[in-house]
Amino acid sequence: MIETRSLKTLTRRQLLSRGVAAGAGLVVGSGFVAGHDGAWATEMDAMKPESFATLVRMARDIYPHDRIGDQYYAAAMKGYDVPEEVDFAQDGIEVLEETSRAAGFDSYLNVGWEADRVAILRGIQETEFFQRVRGGLVTGLYNQKEVWPIFGYQGESYSKGGYMHRGFDDITWI
Amino acid sequence: MVAPFELTDDNVVVIIGTGAGGGVLANELAQKGVSVVALEAGGRYLPDDYVNDEWASFGQLAWTDTRTTSGDWRVAKDFSNLPAWIVKAVGGTTTHWAGASLRFQPHEWKARSSYGEVEGANLLDWPIDADEMAPFYTRAEDKLGVTRTNGIPGLPGNNNFKVFEAGAKKIGYKEVHTGRMAINSQERAGRMACQQTGFCFQGCKWGAKWSAAYTDIPAGEATGYLEVREKAHVARILHDASGKVTGVEYFDEAGELQMQRARVVCVAGNSFESPRLLLNSHSSMFPDGLANSSGMVGRNYMRHLTGSVYGIFEKPVHMYRGTTMAGIVQDEARHDPSRGFVGGYELETLSLGLPFMAAFLDPGAWGREFTTALDSYENMAGMWIVGEDMPQESNRVTLSDAEDRFGLKVANVNYSDHPNDKAMRDHAYRQGAAIYDAVGATRTLPTPPYPSTHNLGTNRMSERPEDGVVNRNGRAHDVPNLYVSDGSQFTTGAAENPTLTIVALAIRQAEHIASEMNQGTL
After folding, report:
1. Are B442 and B517 contained in the same domain?
2. Which of B321, B356, B425, B522 has its CA 20 to 30 A from that of B288?
């Protein structure tokens, strides 16, 4: 599982003072991307922070879950922030930006409405870049155990003796 | 007490594969004092090893060696190198199976006679029938400890079943219950009762579900007549100038080519690997592959038409809690052409965990239509459709241009739906949705077939040699000491989950082989 790393050496205020808001909910700073309130942040190893923020936004637009925070999308995208993957990702993002500009926006992160961003994504959905990002999210997002409770999925029960005495037949409304 | 047999021992029966067919055959022969070497491509995993995490378990157990696909089935697009979700391990797919254990209906043994001519389908009657199979089904049900047989009570219904049952009864279905399951509803045969843990597909950590891995295989080994060689990947079957098979070449765990001599060879590698092995065993005497004078090796691949229906409700269901498939509606399993198709289908409860639901609900889909469904995961109920698909000669396993790590050509799996399959699936989707609508579903989701778990028919059984690959005993029409012992010998697929029938055929085949050996005719 990909982990986001927090910038432990910075206070939340310091972190926010070093970045600028990028689209809804993300702060892009020098060498890092953070949540809007600094509750999570990840340092960049290979990728430009603006590009990573764009990837995170794109990931949410592909699989939008309003109750799931950006940090889980960031964790799913973190695998592109390595030397072997960064060129592929940056090239793909450039295509995304060109498509956004052709639609009349100055950048993907500045497309304010989801419907407009989805229309832009429809325009690139056959590209290898889009398909790899989407395919990777299927495991990269939904296989994070931390998101399972948000969906009401409890996962394994063997360690607790199964669901025999933990509600396998507790439905009352039927 | 593992029997070590010499590679040069030409008195052994070599069985390739250790699942429902091979694993049971190996034990049944060993119990009769027949020496058996079972070659298993996978490793050995037991309940303590199983992982209750879908992707981690998939990585541990699934057969992920490359295969290729073609045809218009959606699996070829969404999972082009994964046409099947089956297991590479001692015990084969009996680690993964859900446990549903149903007998064929009598008319299904005679599909061609029962259904008549169906254009584009290659229907054929089995050379055996329900009466002949009845005693072997009885023994198989006892071996597997099938609920609702042998006085074994049914499993309790979980939340997913309760929704399914209420909806089914509301729309008039009568044959609704928690299934005939090879999962202990009470302690039996030294194995404990089901603890409603879910994760039936990932290997039962309690051992409550029957699997050859921890029943037949160790029982056979305890006799001293069965040796299981793990991580032994069979390359080809050898024969002599008379056309009888003489041994099997395989790559051992170290990647070294070995040759085990054999008196009899039984192929039980599931319906892709079994025909692949016969085709890869071509020679100057058998240029189109071993046992393939009919040209039928690899043809008539069947996978049950499958598909799933999920319903979303206002309140939680928690479908993943408890036994995955303990729930069935059998009213549609009959043959009733007035519905617009021949044959029938079963509806069975099913659930996937969130990770696999995301992967299988609508592969390739994205956006809110997809994610709003997953947002309601907690309030979802699910069912699986298992129906008889039509055998078609063009649905077949052939050798691909691609090669595996040993340089052996891999299987290509070509499949396209027959119009009967589409008509039946559409009917089942409507009935499945009606079940959930009847109890207040706010949304129903028809879900396409997953990579196949029921792989059947690529070495079909036939009365006449020109119609198939093996005879009524699973014996190759062309080669007197070569047998097929898995689901690939199915002439037609019937509507029922196939494992019980594979086990019953293996028990029957063991009687036949032992008898022939005793008479000196094998």
Report:
1. no
2. B522
Does residue B489 lie within any of the structural domains? yes
Whether residues B400 and B441 share a domain: the answer is: no
β-strand B345-349 against B328-329: which pairing, if any?
antiparallel
pLDDT for A25: 78
> Which chain B residue's Cα is nearest to A147?
B354
Asked whether the ipTM of the predicted complex exceeds the cut of 0.90, the reply is: yes
Q: Is residue A48 part of a domain?
A: yes
Top residue of A128, A142, A165 to mutate, by most chain B CBs within 10 Å, is A142
Mean of the per-residue pLDDT values for chain A? 91
Same domain for B315 and B421 = yes
By C-alpha distance, the chain B residue nearest A131 is B364
Cross-chain Cβ contact B199/A164 below 8 Å: no
CA distance B454 to B304: 6
CB-based contact B199 A158, cutoff 8 Å? yes
Quick: pLDDT tens for B40-70. Answer: 999 999 999 999 999 999 999 999 999 999 9
Closest CA to B101 of B187, B6, B214, B211: B211
Element of type H or E holding B357: helix B354-360
> What residue numbers bound the domain in which A114 lies?
12-149
Look at A62 and B366 and tell me if their CB atoms are within 8 Å: yes
Put simply, the answer to whether B370 touches A171 (Cβ < 8 Å) is no
Output the domain CATH number for residue B346.
3.30.410
- Smallest Cβ distance to A151: which of B206, B313, B378? B378
Per the structure, how many domains does chain B have?
A: 2
B220 domain-assigned: yes
Kindly state whether residues B345 and B280 are assigned to the same domain.
Answer: no
Q: What is the pTM of this model?
A: 0.96
Interchain proximity A62–B322, CB inside 8 Å: no
Q: Least CA distance to A118: which residue of chain B?
A: B367
pLDDT tens for B366-386 read 999 999 999 999 999 999 999
Residue A169 lies in a domain: no
- B229 and B129 within one domain: yes
pLDDT band at A10 (very low <50, low <70, confident <90, very high): low
Is A173 in Cβ contact with B52 (below 8 Å)?
no
Q: Contact B358/A142 with Cβ under 8 angstroms?
A: yes
Query: Å from B154 to nearest chain A CA?
Result: 15
Q: Shortest CA distance to A37 belongs to which of A46, A29, A27, A47?
A: A27
Look at A63 and B159 and tell me if their CB atoms are within 8 Å. no
Q: Strand B264-267 to strand B233-239: parallel, antiparallel, or no bridges (unpaired)?
A: unpaired
| Tokens matching residue B451 | 């990579």
Nearest CA in chain A to B202: A156
What is the reported pLDDT for B95? Answer: 98
Q: A58-97, pLDDT tens digit by residue?
A: 999 999 999 999 999 999 999 999 999 999 999 999 999 9
Examine residue A96 and state whether it is found in any structural domain, yes or no.
Answer: yes
Percent of chain B with pLDDT over 90: 99
Interface test with B, best of A163, A165, A170 (most B CBs within 10 A): A163
Q: Does residue A116 lie in a domain region?
A: yes
Torsion angle of C-alpha atoms B144, B145, B149, B153, degrees rounded to 10: -150
Q: pLDDT of B382-422, one tens digit each?
A: 999 999 999 999 999 999 999 999 999 999 999 999 999 99
